[in-house]
């Protein structure tokens, strides 16, 4: 009777192993589907990616610095013109 019991336990263990593998595969499939759906949703909302945001932010900082430098030059030129007049 012990070999019959061992065989039942072996079959049960194999069944549980197969079920665990199937559940893990299903989990990965659901995660992939969820990620794809979330990405589609975000794309439809036209959400900007972090990298793109950082690039535009750096461009804005550079443009602001250039504007400040140009304003200083204009102020200096206007001061010179006022002195000559």
Automatic annotation (TrEMBL):
InterPro entries: UbiK. This is Accessory factor UbiK family protein. It comes from the Bacteria. It holds the Pfam family BMFP. It comes from Endobacterium cereale.
């Amino acid at each position: 009777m012990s070999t019959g019991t061992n065989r039942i336990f072996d079959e049960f263990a194999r069944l549980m192993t197969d079920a665990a593998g199937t559940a893990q595969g299903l989990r990965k499939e659901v995660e992939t589907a969820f990620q794809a759906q979330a990405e589609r949703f975000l794309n439809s909302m036209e959400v900007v990616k972090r990298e793109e945001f950082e690039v535009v932010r750096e461009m804005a900082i550079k443009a602001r610095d250039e504007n400040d430098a140009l304003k200083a030059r204009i102020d200096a030129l206007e001061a010179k013109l006022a002195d000559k007049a």
